[in-house]
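This part of the workshop introduces the protein records we will be handling. A record pairs a protein's sequence with a compact description of its fold. Backbone structure tokens are a discrete shorthand for how the chain folds in space. The question running through the whole workshop is how a given chain folds. The record below serves as our worked example for the rest of this section.
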Amino acid sequence: MEAYSNRKSSNLHRIVIVGGGAGGLELATRLGNSLGKKRKAEIILIDATLTHIWKPLLHEVASGTLNSYDDELNYFAHANKNNFNFFLGKMVEIDRTQKNIILEEIKSVKNEAIVPRRMVSYDTLVIAIGSTSNDFGTLGAKENCIFLDSRQQADRFQNEFLNLYIQAQANELVESDKSKNKVLNIAIVGAGATGVELAAELHHASHQFCKYGLDSISPENVSITLIEASNRILPGLSEKVSLSAKSELLKMGIKILTNSRVTKIDDSFIYFEDGQQILATLKVWSAGIKAPDFLKNISGLETNRINQLVVRPTLQTTFDDCIFAMGDCASFTPEGYERALPPRAQVANQQAIFLEKALKSRLAESNLPHFTFKDKGSLVSLSQSNSVGYILGSVNIEGLIARMMYISLYRFHQIALHGFFKTSILILKDIISKSSKPHLKMH
């Protein structure tokens, strides 16, 4: 393998974090401002992209109700302000014997190699590369559906969504065209939180288009179908929350198909196990997750059937004390639990807080603590005016209070990254922007 090596330039303990999602970026920020600032350790964050956007916001990016460029964070700039280093790159392998990770070469938009394969050494490695959608091998899903795993994919959906309205408006100039009667069919496979939130946000966006002159497709002619293989939407939450969300979606005119297993998808239709089929112009796959495929048994580490690294209560991988894993790419089953913790933002957040303390203990050569998860609840956004969910273990909430609490989740993420003062400025900026900019991204 032709590669160059990034060796340590000092005797400081090097902590390498791979993955700049909610958990990985928060951990790098915390460690940078404690260990890095005091020169007690060298902190490096590695990600395959240049910017970060909070993943729970991607459904808003896809609908156009959020401009991704307004809320993204540049890793280089953030690293500079928070006492850690950022490397651009995608991890493809781990050399556990030499304690190196291998990053694939970086290519330009013209497909020219600008950075060769590299080896980055570590003393402690934290893998936080998140998850991708799991299409379960469904025929035609990859070719005909848009996934919402990244900002680029969400931007692609938003662009295709907007283009359909622009096309319909242009066709109105043709006398024989009956664009006013044009029906836009959107199908979302998977009625977990992402699917439900996207359906509600697209319903809201369809009404916003009319306000800006793109009224050739009336909101009444935007048909949104939410498809779920299990017997109810939001199967990971309580039945009461599920029923409340279903009631709100039905009021919006969103069609809900439960007990509907998709077997095939082509350019125009979605086919079901029972022989039925539905027409769909735009198709989104949001059913299930898995860790990236390259992680499967990487360097002999233990992984489960969806490629997640199996970790102990210390969040160390089962076969290597120097390698930790957190967030969606890690599988941790607490004592007394029947299943591993679900892939949720609050799990990654709590693990980031835990790992800051655990890695300090590791540097001090003390016994590592055990991670304990505290379920603070779960909230699902139903667009601008409503949310549903539960808090404090079992207290169901909905309406404006739930909506305000849902918005606060993102603000807490910003506080963890920027502190209270800068987050206050960002909130003020968002308030001013909403009064001076369109409520829908139109480009």
